[in-house]
Design brief:
Blueprint lengths: L21 H4 L2 H14 L14 E9 L4 E10 L1 H7 L1 H6 L3 H12 L3 H18 L5 E3 L16
Parallel strand pairs: 2-3
Antiparallel strand pairs: 1-2
Helix pairs in contact: 3-5, 5-6
Length: 153
C-alpha cells in the first residue's frame, strides 16, 4: 500500500452484532444529545476528511477476542462518504461499492488495488468475528453522562 497511515478505515460490525448499538440502548433524546455534542466537538467537520457538510455520528467499537465483548470506545462525526466507507458491507449491498473505492483511494492516497486488498482483509476479519456472539459494553458512556456536552465524545 502506498501510505503507512490509514486515515479512513473499514469497520465491519460482525453479523452477530447487527442492530446492537448505542442507538438501540439509549433513548432518542439521549442519542440526539450525544451525536450533537460530537458534531460540536468536531467543529462541525468530518473527523476523517475534514468536509463541512451534513454529519453523521459513528460509533467506534473494539472487539475483545478473549471475552467476546463489543466495547464502545467513542463516537465520531463523519461526512456521509466517510461513513458509507466505514460500513462497507451495507454500502456495497446498496450499490455504493465503487463510490466507496473512489473515496477511500482519495482519502488514503491508495490505488484501487490497495483498496481492494484492504477490503479483502477487513472481510476476513468480519467473517471470523461473525462466528461468535458478542456481549455489548457501552460503559464508555457512563463516564460521560454527568459531564458537560463538550466531553461526551
Amino acid at each position: 500500500m502506498q501510505s503507512n497511515k490509514i486515515e479512513l478505515t473499514i469497520e465491519l460490525v460482525p453479523s452477530t452484532c447487527w442492530y446492537s448499538n448505542v442507538r438501540s440502548e439509549v433513548s432518542k433524546k439521549k442519542w440526539d444529545s450525544i451525536r450533537k455534542a460530537c458534531y460540536k466537538k468536531a467543529n462541525y467537520m468530518c473527523e476523517i476528511c475534514g468536509k463541512r457538510e451534513e454529519l453523521q455520528a459513528h460509533e467506534i467499537w473494539h472487539y475483545d477476542e478473549d471475552s467476546k465483548r463489543q466495547i464502545l470506545q467513542g463516537i465520531i462525526s463523519l461526512c456521509p462518504k466517510c461513513h458509507m466507507c466505514k460500513h462497507w458491507g451495507l454500502s456495497s449491498l446498496r450499490g455504493k461499492e465503487e463510490a466507496c473505492i473512489q473515496h477511500m483511494m482519495k482519502v488514503n492516497g491508495w490505488s484501487k488495488e490497495d483498496v481492494l486488498l484492504y477490503v479483502e482483509s477487513a472481510f476476513e476479519q468480519w467473517s471470523r468475528r461473525s462466528q461468535h456472539k458478542w456481549d455489548l459494553d457501552i460503559s464508555w458512556l457512563d463516564g460521560d453522562q454527568n459531564t458537560q456536552e463538550k466531553d461526551i465524545c
